[in-house]
Every structure is written in structure tokens, then in C-alpha cells.
Amino acid sequence: IIELGTPERSVITTCAYCGVGCSFKAELNGDELVRMVPYKHGKANRGHSCVKGRFAYGYANHKDRILNPMIRDSIEEPWQEVSWDEALAFAAQRMRGLQDKYGKKSIGVITSSRCTNEETYLVQKLTRAVFGNNNTDTCARVCHSPTGYGLGQTFGTSAGTQDFDSVEDTDIIILIGANPTDAHPVFASRMKKRLREGAKIIVIDPRKIDLVRSAHIEASHHLPLRPGTNVAVVSAIAHVIVTEGLMDQDFIRERCDWEEFSEYAEFISDTRHSPEATELLTGVPAADLRAAARLFATGGNGAIYYGLGVTEHSQGSTTVIGIANLAMLTGNIGRRGVGVNPLRGQNNVQGSCDMGSFPHELPGYRHVKNDDVRDIYQEVWGVQIDNEPGLRIPNMLDAAVEGTFKGLYCQGEDILQSDPDTKHVAAGLAAMECVIVHDLFLNETANYAHVFLPGSTFLEKDGTFTNAERRINRVREVMKPLNGYADWEVTQLLANAMGAGWHYTHPSQIMDEIALTTPSFAGVSYDVLEEKGSVQWPCNEAHPDGTPLMHVDGFMRGKGRFIVTEYVATEEKSGPRFPLLLTTGRILSQYNVGAQTRRTANSEWHHEDLLEIHPHDAEVRGIKDGQWIKLASRSGETTLRAQISERMSPGVVYTTFHHPDTQANVITTDYSDWATNCPEYKVTAVQVSNSNGP
Ligand code: SF4
């Protein structure tokens, strides 16, 4: 036990890791942060936390932090430390020079889901108001962009329908493509509590994740599907519900478009969606599919929770639509205990989408082609806005390789480690003439940068994050920025170096502008957040206290929309040369590419990525537990150690991507979701063989 005594002061702020958005009391003695205590009045966590938020904040003072700006003429040259003025003038001159030479649309940005709403809003404003194009994208491209598309098309809004409290009234949970025990630990605890009280759970996942069987919990059904077959499994469940007459006809008649439902019902009733036909495609026994469907349709309040195992597929958007169809079929929308709930990965990935980071949408998910919406911004910003959607991240990289995209401002995102097909990302970055990396550390992407602008941690700034339940939480400055500027100030300085003339003096003014221009945020201000603690959007005149549950009296789009969901097999196929399927995910103590958690004591628990492999698959290859193996795909190869695990299904292997040495994304393919380009990280055909190590 370490006796820390009574702290001199404390500041309430929000965790900067996952989309649960836990509130913490940062306790300080003088200027020294001595501990993070979960805040008992935090509405998302109620005094709970996990090992990341509680202990892994030490990266803020890590010796690897870069605190001075740096520039270089070419990526072959060494970095040169310069003043902020010099770095910003260099960056501005280069970016403007590229636009003069190659055109207005030759440059763009990647916003950060780690940064605040206010910072993200400013970066997309920089793109639209200063660069004069819509070339802005976000890491949601590689995680939940199919959620934005699928829920937008069916329900009319691109976000989860429930608050976290809603799980307390749930009777039957479908958990698909998500492992909350590792990725959303505090919400997983609430889910487990409800399961211990008697609720049931159907887990759809190739792995036997913790929620299939852990202390006092046994899933009613585990459907261990073959990776890449989500659409078929969801359709089979819908097939049973429709053909056995288990749907909620009153809900569908009253709340949904009946003509579209009729078309969908005819489609889904076809025998190609039957459990027996689906068993052949997915490997899930027909009897289990049938039993799971009956349980979900008749078991009381049904809620669906899902994660990246749904979205990061070539049919990610189709599965999200299928999930929405299931919820509408069973009338599980618009009250406590039900709903469709994407478990968002990053602390502010919901917010970065809300704030207009996508190249086709202004803040509040309004299309750039909409003249009335552009008029709002044109009046407030005093500039014309391009009405053509800009480039997505993969399009930026393709255009860079082709020679038409030349400059990138990348804030808080390490695309070389996180995005698929590492070789292609590197080729795109290498082809650009100005890459500005704005980050805490010299990350992998910075190897290709010409300007490095030091970033600030969540402890060094004011602002807001929006969590997976649309809750807007305050982030408060615990310590002064070590580099001199919070990230929103750096973006403003860059905009002004390019001639913008912005003069925000506090992030609350940026939030006021967001409220002025975005109807779903019209009632949000720092005063309101101070008074209420937090609010869930939409928060406006119609919903002054925010909106814990969506689609209560009607869908945001009017009538709920059923859309047919034809299963199309991924192009990525296993075969004699690559007989296993690789899927990827996270582990409790580490976070994403590990830039923060690897620089804390959390690395003692997990200091390398491992390849989980079923005992049979290991035995036939002569692989022992802990042994080095070579993991090879059609895209590339890497080495890591094997972990023999009964959690795996035969034929499926699994690894995490927290350590740059592993280079998991050298292996992954460049297939992506048909609607949003979200990469298919979850299905890669691989071979595993013995190795002597790296
Ligand atoms: Fe909460 Fe997620 Fe932070 Fe853990 S990582 S403390 S669950 S917000």
C-alpha cells in the first residue's frame, strides 16, 4: 500500500482511452499528478475504472515526449529543432506552395479521435475554410464508418440508440463482434452484473471470449462463426423470426415503412437464409441459430451490442444494416433495455464523427452538397465552402501514389501503424511533399514527416469528449501544456499562418460556435455542462436535458427503413497456401497501437503481441506454446510468438496490434467495406510456420 496522503487539489476530467468515457478525479500535490481516482458521480462509470484509465497516464511525462517543433526539407535529412513561429511558417508556406503548384485539392487532413470535440471541429474548419476543400477524414474510417452509414440509412442517425444505464433493463443481449471485457472494461462489468441478475446473452464471435464463459456467467448460445460471415448469421436469425411469425407486427406497422418491410420479409424468407443453408457457410450449427433467434425474439427486452468485429469487414455496413433490421423486426427500439449499441473504440471517435471529420459531411452529419447547411457555415465562417465531397484516407494515399495529393496535416493518428497494407501507406506518405505530424511522440508516421508539431495530452487541455452513448463529458486542464500550447491552439496558429485570422481564446468559444451551427448541439455550452455534469446529444430546445434514449416516438428519419442484406463472400479466401484465417483485436492492458500504454507500467503485463492458435492447428504444424512462428499472408509476413489457446476455433488464429515490432498490418489485406472503405482487418488468409525469431 502506498500512502499518498491528502492531495492538495483535484480536477474532474475524462479518461482519454476507450469510448466508455469514465470520469476521474485527477489528484495533485502542487503541479505533480499523484493519482487518478474514478469519480463516483461520473455518469458513465459511477466510480469504476479499468487499468488503463486508472494507472496508464504516466505517458504524459514520458521522456519520449517531443516538446519542441521540428522541421526538415526532406525525410532523408535529420530533424532540426526550431521555434513555433518558424515551424508554423514553414508548414504554412509549404502547404500553400503545394496548392499553388498542384491545385486547391492537393492537400488535406486527418483529424484525431483522441483529441477533443473543439479541436476536431477546428481541424475540419481548417480544411474547409482555409484549405478550401473537403479533404478531411478520421480514424473512424478504419473502425466505425459502417456504423455511421448503416444506422444513418435505417434509423436516420449515425449513433447508438441507448445510454449505458439501459442495460439494467435488458433481458437478452446479442453481443456480436465485440469483446468488452478487454476493450470496454467498465461497461463489460455492468453487462456482467445484469447477466448475474438473470439476463441472457448470445455471443456471436469466432473466439470463446470471456463473456462466453466466465465467473458466474455462461452464454446461452455461443455462435462461433467463420470470420467474414456475419451477414449470413444475422440473416439466418432474421429468417427464423420472420418465417416463424415471431416479429413485432404492431411495431413494424406503426414505426416502419411497411412497403420496405414487405420487400425485406420476402427476401429474408427465402430458404437460402435458412439456418441449414447458413450452417454450410458459417460453420454455426443450424439448431443453435434457430434457438438463438427464438430466444432473442421471445426473451423480453432485447439489446444488441457490437464492435469492430462487425464493422471491419468488406460487408461491415451490410451487417450494421442487418442488426438494425433485427432490432426493428422485434420492436426492440425506443425504450430502456433494448436498442442497437455500437461500442465505440476511442475516447472521442463518436465526437470526431459528430464534428464533421468525414469528407462528405459537415458537423451534425449534414451533407456538404446541402446548400442550406453550407449557407450556415458560409455565414459564420465568412468563406465559400466547396460542395464536392473530399477524399477518404485510402483515396488520399492512392492519390499520393498517383501524384495528385501532395500535403497532409495528420493530428494524433499514426496511420503507418494503424492502417491496413503498411507498404501502401508508406508509399503514399513517401510520395507527399509536405507531411505535418502533430503528435506526442515521434511515431511511425513521423518517419515520413517534414514538420513535427508537438501535441498535448488530455491532461493539458480544456474541452469535451463524446462517448459511445453520445454523452458529452468535460475534459479539464490538470496541468499546463508541456509544449506551450494545447492542440486547438496549434491548429489555430497554423490556420492563421495560412491567413485565416481566427481569434479563439478558450475552447468554450469553439463549443459556442458548434452550438450555433449544429442543431443536435444547440443546447450545449460549458455552463450547461458545468450545471448538469454531462449531456447526451441531441441537446437542444426540444431536448434541453439531452437524449438518453433515441427514436422513442419515431425514428429520426421518420419511418424506420428495412433494407435487404445480401451476403457476399469476401474476396479474401483461404486455400492450400494460406489455410488459416487471421482476425485481430485488443487486450485489456494495452490500447490500440500502444503509443500511450506502451510507455507506462501496463507494458509489464503485455509486452509483446502473441498469435493465439488452436491446439490442433499448432500440433499439426509442430508448434509449441511460446515458440517463435512466422505469420505470412499474400500481403507480407512477420514473426511473433505462439500462444496455444482453446479460445480459438480450429482454422482461425488471432493477434493484437499494440506493438510496432509485430507489424500486424503488414499482413492485412487492402479489401474494404463496399460503402465506406473501412478496411477488412478481421479476415486475412494466412500460413503459420516455425521460425527462429526476428
Ligand atoms: Fe473507462 Fe475505458 Fe478509460 Fe477504462 S479505458 S477507465 S473503461 S474510459
Fold and architecture overview:
By secondary structure, this protein is of the alpha/beta class. It has four domains: 9-61, Single Sheet (N-terminal domain of TfIIb), CATH 2.20.25; 70-140 and 348-460 and 481-522, Rossmann fold, CATH 3.40.50.740; 145-342, Dimethylsulfoxide Reductase, domain 2, CATH 3.40.228; 580-690, Beta Barrel (Barwin-like endoglucanases), CATH 2.40.40. The chain is built from 23 helices and 28 strands. The strands form seven sheets. The chain has a seven-stranded mixed beta sheet. Helix 7 (230-243) packs antiparallel against helix 10 (275-282), helix 7 (230-243) packs across helix 11 (286-298) and helix 10 crosses helix 11. The longest helix is centred in the N-terminal third of the chain and has 19 residues, at 84-102. The two termini are 40 Å apart. The structure holds iron/sulfur cluster. Iron/sulfur cluster binds at residues 15, 17-18, 20-22, 45, 49-50, 52-53, 184-186.
- Provide a count of the helices: 23
Low-confidence stretches: none
Euclidean distance between termini CA atoms = 40 Å
* Secondary-structure-derived class: alpha/beta
CATH class of the largest domain: Alpha Beta
* Spatial strand arrangement across the major sheet: 5-4-19-18-17-6-7
Question: What is the mean pLDDT?
Answer: 92
Q: Bound compounds, please?
A: iron/sulfur cluster
CATH domain topology of the largest domain: Rossmann fold
Number of domain units = 4
- What is the CA-based Rg, rounded? 24 Å
Examine the secondary-structure arrangement and name the CATH architecture of the largest domain: 3-Layer(aba) Sandwich
Overall strand count: 28
What proportion of the residues is helical, as a percent range?
25-40%
User: Biggest β-sheet, characterized?
Assistant: 7 strands, mixed
Sum up the overall morphology in one term. globular
Sheet-strand content, in percent, reads: 15-25%
Keywords: 2Fe-2S, 4Fe-4S, Iron, Iron-sulfur, Metal-binding, Oxidoreductase, Repeat
Protein name: Formate dehydrogenase alpha subunit
GO molecular function, one term: metal ion binding
Domain 4Fe-4S Mo/W bis-MGD-type: 8-64
